[in-house]
Specification:
The chain has nine helices and eleven strands. Helices cover about 40% and strands about 20% of the residues. The strands form four sheets. It has a five-stranded antiparallel beta sheet, with helices on both faces. Bound molecules: zinc ion. Zinc ion (ZN) binds near residues 110, 115, 116 and 129.
Length: about 290
């Protein structure tokens, strides 16, 4: 879709038309679409993104629509929690894990200074409770050492996290210390909207989508009005901008059935604002 040659453009237009058609089938309004690439013809749909925004979307087939700089990697922040669900979600939800977040634990601070209070897996995921995830993943790591041994445990973890590590982790066969970087703080774990979407689309990640639906759907009445009766699920994550921690950008991952989208905001937005932007983008009138 990034190709600007004739064939690429034709394929892009075809893909955009398909996305709009299927979103209409989902019960939504006409989807307008435009990318930073030359605009599609007036007969085709346009999705207008603002500078600095990026979006990748699929409707459950293998086609991916990309808008803005959808292949640019940036720190993934709390989307890392979805990676942990892939590894441990089944076990954690079967055990009904709980954690009491007071906002600090030793040198570690949570995203909410006063703490999230008592959280289960669903609430920790909804509210981005880093301390809960850190406590749970450290317990999980101890268990893996016993169950699989060091090298096999690392290769199991690397299978899930590898695509998000680049070359930022020294090679080795030992489990790394599970610092806050492993729940998405800092820049160890990175992704792009396109890469994150393709990861979620892979059959191996089916369980992540199931957990997303189970833990995160049903809280977004404005979206159920907008895009049909069934519930979308959304996971938001606010990420400090590199070199300027007081500024942020934000991620939104969401889905309904087989439709999935991954959005990354322009600088200056938090998760809530990013979700509002996703809503605005989907509501754009026909052009
Ligand atoms: Zn917390």
């Amino acid at each position: 879709m990034a190709s600007r040659n004739g064939a690429g453009k034709a394929a892009r237009i075809q893909c955009l038309a398909r996305i709009a058609a299927i979103l209409l089938l989902l019960g939504g309004p006409t989807l307008a679409a435009q990318t930073t690439a030359p605009a599609a013809p007036t007969s085709g749909p346009k999705l207008v993104l603002q500078p600095g925004e990026a979006l990748a979307i699929t409707l459950g087939d293998d086609e991916v629509g990309e808008y803005g700089d959808a292949k640019v990697e940036v720190p993934m922040g709390g989307l890392a929690e979805l990676l942990w669900l892939r590894l441990e979600g089944a076990d954690w939800s079967a055990r009904h894990l709980q954690y009491r977040c007071t906002g600090v634990e030793g040198p570690l601070a949570c995203s909410v200074k006063t703490g999230h209070g008592r959280v289960d897996v669903g609430k920790a995921l909804q509210e981005g409770c880093d301390l809960a995830f850190l406590a749970w993943i450290r317990d999980a790591q101890k268990q893996w050492r016993q169950d699989f041994g060091e090298a096999a445990a690392w290769s199991r973890m690397e299978e899930v996290f590898g695509p998000f590590l680049g070359r930022r982790l020294p090679p080795g066969e030992r489990l790394p210390p599970l610092t806050p970087a492993w729940v998405g703080q800092g820049d160890l774990l990175q992704t792009s909207p396109e890469a994150m979407l393709r990861w979620l689309m892979a059959p191996d990640q089916g369980e992540v989508v199931v957990f997303g639906t189970r833990f995160l759907a049903g809280r977004w009445s404005e979206f159920s009005d907008l895009l049909g009766k069934a519930n979308w699920w959304f996971k938001t994550a606010t990420v400090p901008s590199p070199g300027e921690p007081s500024a942020t950008s934000a991620w939104v991952v969401g889905g309904r059935g087989n439709a999935l989208l991954v959005y990354h905001s322009a600088r200056g937005r938090d998760g809530k604002a990013a979700l509002a932007r996703v809503q605005e983008i989907m509501k754009q009138p026909p052009r």
